Amino acid sequence: MSGFVLADNNWLTIKVSGVNKKIEKNIFAHLGTLPENEVQRRAFLFTVDDNTQDALESMGYYHGILDVDVKENDNGPWELSLNITLGDPVIIQWIDIRFQGEMLEDDTFSLWLNRLKVKPGDTLNHGVYDLIKSQLVTLALARGYFDGQYTKAEISINRDLNTAQINLQFDSGKRYLFGHVDFEGSTLHDDLLESLIPFDADAPYATQQLTEFNRNLLDTGYFSNIKVLPQLDKIDTGLVPIKVELSPRPSHLIDVGLGADIGNSTENAVDPRVRVTWRTPQINSYGHYQETSAEWSPERPKILTTYTIPLTHPLDDQLKIKLGLLRDTYGVTQDYDADKREFSNTGQLESKKYLIGLTRQRRSKNNWLHGYSIESMREFYTQLDTDYDPRFYLLSYNLTKTVRGDNTLDPKSGYRQTYSIEYADPSLGSTIRLARLQARFKWIETLFDKHRFVARIDLAANIADKNDIDYIPPSLRYFAGGDQSIRGYSYQELGPYIDYTNDDGGLSRQVVGGRYLAIGSIEYQYYLTPTWRVATFVDAGNAFDTQQFEPVVSVGGGVHWISPIGPIRMDLGFGLKETETVARSYRFHLTMGTDL
Q: What are the POTRA domain coordinates in residue numbering (predicted)?
């Protein structure tokens, strides 16, 4: 083993040889801070032998031979050389860990034992031994065994045979229980707050459930500051009282979001987007709250208000009332130029929608979110020079599950799956009979800390009589294109088209959307730093009608900044296919928000 220079300063230079990097680092830790004057240097050198031997023994080398050489220089630092012959290490012969007390009935400790990696045949390491002792005490405290203690904790070492025997005996005593939960600083009704407590009265104490309790309070959005404090100094008859200190959020919150699509498709080179969201976190003591979102982009202004009423649980059972006015554009409209013998863009399919809806969302114990809703909507649009204004009363059921590997704004792993069915019928007041089926899936995984993969699949279908297709409004049809669909193309510009004779007798073409949707995407992201990453992606698919599937593919890349308020992504996509209505295009997509 070659020598290593561990450190140097104006008073002393240290060189170690004969050991590997791990043992060298441990020696340096035992030697301590380097001297800063002559007195400290002599004291340092006086303890070198003992400290080095302690460092070797702590890692199982009890027969190490140390050769110390000090070169005293008149000018410059002295040179300390440590040449070490390790000898044979001490090997663990057996490990005996025994439990006593109520912990014997707690499976958590059996799982902890099964995860221990130390085993007979390993080289003795006192640091690992101390870590095991600390882990067991920490786990006992986290599970409510506040009287737990070691009745025996020893390592028996036979220097002649180079063997060690580890013996640990831990008596947990009794397990304490949760006591009364006292809330301070909130104006919400006690019943509402108590429904957020994830444990029953007199349930066995566990810090994991306190963490879940804190997360429940945070997820409600009612509070700006939360402290869940077990009062161990006030334990009475085995019960641990819990004190909860809450600070309400400001009465009104306003968020602003910015985005843009930049490219050469359709007729706009730049398509900016601005979103302003106004939230009232708590309207009354029953926990009602509202969120109003106003979004602006050229020809696509939208405003949507959602009023939420907690029912049996503020997070897992909610009634939502929605009221909105939305204007949007879809596809592209083109006129044929006989002189140039080509189609030129003249606009897009425009619609204006009024809606009011009522939704109940309930979360099951296995984390599925069930949504039951009825929505009344009326939409106005002009298609093929004909005006339409169908009315729909949609009954729907939605099923969603989201699993996150962590609670950060940029999760390293997780997935979301969403399934929905909507139905409208003339007997219930709708213009036509319509059934809508949708399924969406998004998956995230990070390998080796730096390699992140994001995949998604969107599938959808409209089931209706072929004579009623024109009465399906654009907002209920399917289009492709945009930063959440196929990048490299403009927002909702892809889909089936129809050629028709316009009011002037000329030939026109209009993208009217499809009855079906199939889109897939795979993206690879590489972290340059914890807050910056680069990405490359492939998006493919399209909206289509029966037997008219024309897949479109785009590729591209981007740079992402993981900001304190969430990832901000700048992506550049290139469309690889020229369709009858869209030339090969590129688009810049600037977006912000978490993936799940």
A: 176-243
The span from the CA of 495 to the CA of 548, in Å, is 10
DSSP sequence for 411-477: -SSEEEEEEEEEEE-GGGT-SS-EEEEEEEEEEEEEETTTEEEEEEEEEEEEE--GGGGGGS-GGGS
- 95 with 75, same domain: the answer is no
Eight-class DSSP state of 551: -
d(C-alpha 161, C-alpha 92), whole Å: 11
Last residue of a domain, one of 171, 202, 233: 171
Domains contained in the chain, number: 4
Pairing of strands 149-158, 91-100: unpaired
Which tokens belong to 274? 């601005």
Structure tokens, 492: 């909702």
User: Considering 85, 117, 140, which residue would you say is the last residue of a domain?
Assistant: 85
pLDDT digits 0-9 by tens, 323-359 = 999 998 888 888 888 888 888 888 888 999 999 999 9
Exposure on the CB side of residue 358, measured as CA atoms within 13 A:
2
Token pair recorded at residue 494: 């892809």
By residue range, what is the domain housing residue 18? 5-85
Whole-prediction pTM: 0.78
38 and 109 fall within a common domain: no
Distance between CA atoms of residues 315 and 217, nearest Å = 9
| Alpha carbons 590 and 487: distance in angstroms, whole number | 11
pLDDT digits over 464-486, tens only?
Answer: 999 999 999 999 999 999 889 99
Q: Note whether 163 and 132 are same-domain residues.
A: yes
| Residues 186 and 335 occupy one common structural domain | no
Q: In what order do the strands lie in the sheet with 223-230?
A: 177-184, 239-248, 223-230
